[in-house]
Protein 1
Amino acid sequence: MGILKKMTCTQESTYNGWQQFTLENDQGMVVQFLDYGGIITSIQVPDRNGKLENVVLGFEQVSDYSHNTNYLGALVGPVAGRIAQAAFEINGQTYSLEKNEANHHLHGGSNGFHQVIWQAAPFETAQTVGVRLTHRHPAGLDGHPGNLDVAVTYTLDQNNAFTITYEAVSDQDTVVALTNHSYFNLSGNLQDTVHQHQVTINSEKFIELDADLIPTGQVLPVAGTPFDFQQGHYLADGIAAAHEQNVTVGNGYDHYFLFRDPAFQAQVLVTEKQSGRTMTIETNQPGMVMYTANALTEGMPLAGGTSKNYLGVCFETQASPASLELDTIPSVKLAAGERYEKKTVFTFGNL
Ligand code: FUC
């Protein structure tokens, strides 16, 4: 086709022997990640003037990821989010997991996918470069039933789209909800907090939380609340809102939004006027947690600045573990032999 192909995938050894991969396309967009935790350490995309800057939170020192309590950039599983009372039931049997946040289980606990070393296999096609990450979560490791084989693929294309595909299969009925925990900040190199990020979400309902951030069992309509992003609004509106649900999570958002239609499509649009950057999220996940970093550890040395609340926003596309108690929403259950196949595409552009 006469296309001069310059897309590259390079690999280097970092702290502790962790491998860092760098994907780069012809526009100069760069995505970097580790085999450790599948952690995305940087995403560089152009502003409206073509200036490449980093749009995710990442540590200044790679070694700091060994104590990544805020899950910066991490691949989260087997079940992302909170499992109430760290227990769930399948086929009449109760399975108990580690209680790593009060009485609850959060983000896979200490055997979570965010701190395992994934097997990494780089690949390239005519118009993409990527790395396929694989991992087996063995039966009996932490209370989950069955061996779970997981493959997560990170792919960059020529149109500034970064795709994450998630595949999993278990030999017993189990629970799975995979996501990525990148904190986005489209201002570039942490120039600003995310207050002025304008977000549009195809969602009419969200899940109410209690003070432990555990679902109450109520699915609430967004209409007439700061949770109504259907026409788009600034994150600042909810950070400052007096709505009981914004206040409960520490002023902001840490909530699961159900998408109106879970078929693969653009579900989220994020724009940042100052830089002119935009990000569209397409997914076949049924919803997402939007977390505005209300409780981000302050004072951590990050690439480009120091951490503080509201410095990033996570869009954790996934099914919700709240489905273990609520049978009206899409389930995290995966039957033995069933194929879990999810895809989320983050496409960057300019206003
Ligand atoms: C998000 C939130 C949690 C937690 C974690 C680091 O997924 O739902 O509240 O703070 O990230």
Protein 2
Amino acid sequence: MAELSNKVILTVATTGAWPSKNENPAVPLTPREIADEVYACWKAGASVAHIHVRDDEGKASMSYEKFKETLGYIRATDCTIVLNTTTSGGLGFDDDLRMKPFRELKPEMASYDCGSMNWLHNSVFENHPRFLEKLGPAMLEVGVKPEIEIFDAGMVYNALYYLKKGVLTAPLHFQFVLGAAGGMAATVENLVFLKSLIPAGSTWGAFGIGSGHLPILYAALALGGHIRVGMEDNVYYAKGVLAKSNVEFVERSKRIVKEFNKEVATPDEAREILGLRAR
Ligand code: ZN
């Protein structure tokens, strides 16, 4: 693993549940648009694609058919990027709907949101213990690695509890999501604190939402973590300047990683670092 210690996994989250064409006309929404954008980001050097889909109106969705179409387009190409699908997709979706895409389509990773929270001061992002206790074993059963998303410190303690109970198995992979209203703010101090809570031998990445994007990207690199970019988290390339595509974010972070004397992991190196099942 020694030669992998200098490698940084670069995840691109092209779409997410919320950004619309009104906020940035370049956000990809249809299966074709998402697949083409993932392909372009892979060509530009991204290691992992975190995937959401939208319905025909462009709204948040957990439609199995849309996931099937999107992954189908990507898999029909020579693209080797690691596929990571959401199990949330938005708010209020039924448990089975949330689990069907990874169960049937078997991406190598899927998100595991490790607790509930008030969401943007107007609703609840529910991840009931009943759901999390089903989700871990269901992912294990099909060989899908959970990406444990952490919005607040209590969610790390939930993960430790599920590790002890066998709902999750080591080594864990954490994704710290900072700057979502209702969760922890996107500060370097919060990231240092969260990192201090996770078990030795875990892997982790982090990203900040909106204006927290660059501070957390630089802090994650400095602390030895992996990084994530993309329009799910931030539609601006700079203050007042909309990103032209997700590729712009991938290219910038590749430059930053290089200047930092590290290298972006290839998809296969990401597979090795994360202990993913063979593709
Ligand atoms: Zn997501």
Protein 3
Amino acid sequence: MKHDFFNDLDSYIQDTRPGFEKQLAELVAIPTVSTDPDHAADIILGAQLAVTYLTRIGFTARVVPTAGHPVVVGELIGDASWPTVTIYNHLDVQPADPGEWQTPPFMLTTSDDKYFGRGATDDKGPALTALMATKYAHEHQLPLNFKYIWEFEEESGSTHFEDFIVAERAALDTDSVLVSDSVWISAGRAAIPYGLRGLVSFELRLQTGRSDVHSGLAGGAARNPLGELMQIIIECYDATTGHVKVPGFYDSVQPVTEAELDSFVASGFDAKVFAKAHGLSSMRTVDNRDLARRVMAEPTFEVHGLLGGYTGPGIKNIIPPAATAKLSTRLVPGQHPEQTFDLIKKFINQKHPDVVVSPGDACEPYLGAFEGSYTTAAINATNYAFGSTPAFIREGGSIGSVLTMAHHLKAPIILLGLSLPSHGYHSVNEHYDWTQASGGIKLFVKYFSEIADIKRGHITSS
Ligand code: BES
Ligand code: MN
Ligand code: MN
């Protein structure tokens, strides 16, 4: 049966390409920017299109509203005795500034086998790749039931995802979850993450006046909110080494094991390749092991933006009345967003009581398993589709919904991402490519066929 099952796969993948490209173009054309309230109507359009895609291949699908953006759920149940896989992707995207792109960000532009557009690789392309594989499995009678969860709030911290999971729990029983929203080590080196960092972002705001004042008239007496915010930031962390100076910040960090670091380095994690892939002209370290530790297993403190003062041409000799700093910290297992935020806020306000510290997005870190029958299936599928064994890594990025699903669905979660470092995650000229898409279809079809054979027994009812 397995031989027949895979017989049509190569021709299916070739035949499916125009449809894949058309759907990716339609999805990219809807600017589903979840962080920007002006795009709320686009999110609704995106959710409706997503339902159309699912129903077209036989799913029952619906838009589930939340207090924030909706979630699209679908199911394709062949037989209650078959195992069920739940596939998670997010269809919201980061904002994009058209002035900085070489092509319009919300218009899919194909060049060779690359697909340029906001969300092409994070995460609309991988979502459609999984959908094409699902269609094949369904058309070839694979004894596996499918459920889909397409989130539209991932890029803004999955704020209402837990409410959604709790409300819909009865419809979400599953034997396992597949998440495709992560990045390989490099092209040709597949990576399966078993961990994700958490995150808490926050803003500092300081107001010391009403409007700009002349720095000759008031300079020396007036406080400078921009300068003070910079000082506070440097009290929080050493910008050269990255070391966080907030007392207690590292106390609960669960240290990475030497064996894990060995395996990250052995899997081909290389400082030179990393710097090149991300276009970094210099880094805090060039040591492979130290680099792996820093991006996979240590918390960070970052300054994303500083607002205030004069930024036009030339220099304007004013003292600004207010300033804002946008910051975040990535968290590793052992740390929690609320606790970490409280530590930082307390530290800042002890020294600078008039600075307003307000929280933004938050999500918990995640650490899963990298053994067991689903992991074996993922290894076999990677070998089959890409001709090599995957590296087991921890991702430096965050996916808030993964921890929520692990907590409530109580089923094994496998992260099989398809993005490459060169795809420009969150950056200008973001793209996906047909090599990853076609290999990805093969990967998922093989993975589905493997997990269809795994004995049931994981289903837990709420
Ligand atoms: N797909 C990424 C997460 C990711 C990043 C996985 C890098 C692997 C490597 C996801 O879409 C994302 O960008 N998440 C946000 C979450 C945040 C807003 C809570 C992130 O990591 O900043
Ligand atoms: Mn993503
Ligand atoms: Mn993202």
Protein 4
Amino acid sequence: MTGTPTGLSQAATSNRRPIETARNDFPILDQTVAGKPLVYLDNAATTQKPRRVIDSLRHYYEHDNANVHRGIHELSERATRQYESARDKVRDFINADVREEIIFVRGTTEAINLVAQSYLRPILAAGDEILITEMEHHSNIVPWQLVAEQTGARLRVAPITDSGELLLPTLAEMIGPRTRLLAVTQVSNALGSINPVADIVRLAHEQAVPVLVDGAQAVGHMPVDVRAIGCDFYAFSGHKMYGPTGIGVLYGRRDLLEKMPPWQGGGEMIRSVSFEKTEYNVLPHKFEAGTPHIAGAIGLGVAIDYIEDLGRSAIECHEQDLLAYATGALARVPGLRLVGTAPQKAAILSFLIDGLHPHDISTVLDREGVAVRAGHHCAMPLMARLGIPGTTRASLAFYNKPAEIDALVRGLLQVVAFFNRGRAGG
Ligand code: PMP
């Protein structure tokens, strides 16, 4: 280790539960890969799970497993209580107005598709516009393209700067009388840029345009208050915030959700069914057709408890310290260029190294036990805009240590030396 981050902020150190020791809550991190201690720096793809979340899944299946809402027996009542209590936790966590605004879905991708098909499709006409940005994940592009194809609407794309900042004045000019929805990410998974979503919502609302915020990379890393942001929809995934896979949330403003038709039909989302006519259930059940991921929702609730115990501001401060340390440390690697240097950034470091392919870099790092990601990060249009095929990406979580960033840098120095030797050797 070459040193520790200077000035670890007060909030990070004077926390209810010290973040430094929280790493021990993650059993998976305590292992070796290729004979080296695992260094997990792929947190933007998915985060690891604390023991509490893992135990909650096991406990549910060992003691309480039953289907929700329908059974009049003890287990079903227990399962229902826990499932619905997870909804209350989510409501509190993002400060939604009422629990009916919290819809459990599979993840961010499903949440965005739900809005595209149930909110947007019925109101879109040929020539209408959906506004997104150049830094969106495919999940916040393709669902809009699908609905545009279905209706003759048009996708418009607000530009970013070379450093990965949204050009707000241009975005504002692009909101027009034909704009039916603006969809924007809060944090870019490929660049780390943090967008001023509350300002963006204000601009859009001035022209009565609703806004969906993709919160996949934000919600586990910083405080999120959907009412302070003012957005109409907010989408996120449990697995990127220390919860299980296969569970996520769509928050929607109640008045909008009330007007939207269900997007999937089946059990649970109905009040009564006859062959002539079906009456739909009330919110939020209207949007939860079929047996939900009950254990997943319960596990997500426990992940929320876990995050709240550490404190989201403390997590954010700690990750900002790690980001500053990593940014300085990576500067020591010859030929390395960071991709994404917006002033407001989350702890995601995308980079290129002169003459080296991102996949080669990550393959060599893997042999050192360092897990990073290489490629387009599900943001091919962003890579095209930046004129690059992809990057290597190290994405941090609060449980990462400065020593792990040192291991990354050591690995990168080896990669550079290895390929330089190869070249010198002809
Ligand atoms: N949006 C962003 C910004 C993401 O980073 C991701 C996941 N990489 C998604 C959407 C999609 O999330 P999921 O695969 O969990 O649906």
